[in-house]
């Protein structure tokens, strides 16, 4: 059984910073990409950032250099450093990973975390 567990959300003032973490656990054979998505109230879920197995990164246009995604392959953990936060960054942030498990190493599936709330407000 694979689990993705996010942490690090909370309340922060505009201009502040937060660091989100997402740890994947279970019988993992290999992780392909790891992503962060977010979903604001009444909005569609959108891709925030992605990091692939080689360390290449992609960001949503709205990030504009404020966020940095990184990954610790030894710990099966992905991070999202968020700086210069704005009220419009308020959302539930979800971790997503495409991975294969030990029992079926040839099949890659997507898994999701439960989400962590980020609120940017004064």
Explain what you see.
0% of the residues lie in helices and 61% in strands. The protein has no helices and eleven strands. Strands 2, 4, 5, 6, 9, 10 and 11 form a seven-stranded mixed sheet that branches. It has a four-stranded antiparallel sheet with strand order 1-3-8-7, with no helix packed on it. The termini are far apart.
Distance between the termini: 40 Å
User: Low-confidence parts lasting 5 or more residues at pLDDT below 50?
Assistant: none
Sequence of secondary-structure elements = EEEEEEEEEEE
Helix content: under 10%
- What is the arithmetic mean of pLDDT? 97
Q: Count every beta strand, where a strand is a DSSP E run of 2 or more residues.
A: 11
Write a concise synopsis of the structure shown.
The protein is 0% helix and 61% strand. The chain has strands at 3-7, 10-12, 18-25, 28-39, 46-51, 57-59, 67-72, 77-82, 91-101, 104-112, 116-120.
Topology summary:
Blueprint: E1 3-7, E2 10-12, E3 18-25, E4 28-39, E5 46-51, E6 57-59, E7 67-72, E8 77-82, E9 91-101, E10 104-112, E11 116-120
Parallel strand pairs: 2-11
Antiparallel strand pairs: 1-3, 3-8, 4-5, 4-9, 5-6, 7-8, 9-10, 9-11
Task: Please tag this protein with its features.
122 residues; mainly beta; four-stranded antiparallel sheet; 61% strand; elongated
């Amino acid at each position: 059984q694979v689990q993705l567990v996010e942490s690090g959300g909370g309340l922060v003032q505009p201009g502040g910073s937060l660091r989100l973490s997402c740890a994947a656990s279970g019988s993992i054979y290999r992780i392909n990409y790891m992503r962060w998505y977010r979903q604001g109230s009444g909005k569609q879920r959108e891709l925030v950032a992605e990091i692939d197995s080689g360390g290449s990164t992609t960001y949503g246009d709205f990030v504009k250099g404020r966020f940095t995604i990184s990954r610790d392959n030894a710990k099966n953990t992905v991070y999202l450093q968020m700086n210069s936060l704005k009220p419009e960054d308020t959302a539930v942030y979800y971790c997503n990973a495409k991975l294969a498990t030990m029992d079926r190493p040839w099949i890659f599936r997507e898994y999701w975390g439960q989400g962590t709330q980020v609120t940017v407000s004064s």
